[in-house]
Write a sequence for this structure.
């Protein structure tokens, strides 16, 4: 069982609103890796992610988590599979009427029989790890976007999941805060030996954290490769995606900077 991939998609097809959003999607996520799915808006990234925890069910094909088919699971089996996951939602999804402490403590109170003393020890340890110990009594509305993402990450890992899903973790954040979130994803993955699946349109983030990067385009996986190999791809769609984020080509702004800084001859 330990040799099985953490997650496996087998020819998954999904229709939404009469449109084929996923088109025979096949891939595997290896245990312990950071697997990043990139693509433009509407390409099928988040739809793919939702299939992993059965928020959506394939119209064709199957999704496997370890040796269990999550797309056919029901009842207690589905609940058990979902317990393997922690999820960091795009908008953090913190409960606005709860403090930071109570947001992070909530999964422990709902899913375990720990005493409040044990819960406090677990929660405060996690908050200290993420530099949030001074925010325990604050409410989400009092926090910056980056701090909200850190609180959501603390909540996502508090039950020690084997797999964590990140839906656009740097969306809406400034570049400096985005890179801090990247660092947290890397450090949490390594510290806990997590399998991580990250959905993002931020290719800079994908290249910084990914062990492998998958590009989804019009519902199909066009390329899966390491960051170095991804950058060298000859696929036209991949090249266009790289160029659009100024990964491989020089923009007009660079030409202007060069002309301003070049010594007069």
């Amino acid at each position: 069982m330990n040799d099985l991939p953490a997650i496996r998609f087998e020819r998954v097809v999904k229709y939404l609103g009469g449109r084929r959003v996923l088109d025979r999607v096949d891939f595997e996520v290896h245990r312990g890796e950071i697997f990043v799915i990139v693509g433009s808006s509407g390409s099928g990234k988040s739809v793919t992610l939702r299939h992993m925890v059965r928020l959506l069910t394939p119209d064709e094909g199957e999704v496997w988590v370890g040796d269990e088919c999550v797309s056919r699971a029901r009842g207690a089996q589905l609940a058990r599979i979902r317990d393997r996951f922690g999820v960091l939602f795009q908008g953090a999804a913190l409960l606005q009427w709860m403090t930071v402490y109570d947001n992070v403590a909530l999964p422990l109170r709902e899913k375990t029989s720990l005493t409040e003393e044990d819960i406090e020890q677990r929660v405060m340890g996690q908050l200290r790890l993420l530099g949030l110990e001074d925010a325990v009594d604050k409410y989400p509305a009092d926090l910056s976007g980056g701090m909200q993402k850190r609180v959501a990450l603390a909540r996502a890992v508090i039950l020690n999941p084997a797999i964590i899903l990140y839906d656009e973790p740097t969306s809406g954040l400034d570049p400096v805060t985005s890179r801090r979130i990247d660092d947290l994803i890397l450090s949490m993955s390594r510290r806990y030996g997590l399998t991580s699946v990250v959905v993002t349109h931020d290719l800079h983030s994908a290249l910084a954290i990914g062990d492998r990067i998958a590009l989804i385009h019009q519902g199909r996986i066009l390329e899966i490769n390491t960051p170095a190999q991804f950058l060298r791809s000859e696929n036209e769609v991949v090249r266009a995606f790289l160029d659009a984020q100024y990964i491989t080509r020089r923009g007009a702004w660079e030409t202007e900077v060069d002309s301003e800084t070049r010594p007069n001859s």
In short: The mean pLDDT is 85. Residues 14 and 139 are 38 Å apart (CA to CA). The first helix runs from residue 45 to 52.
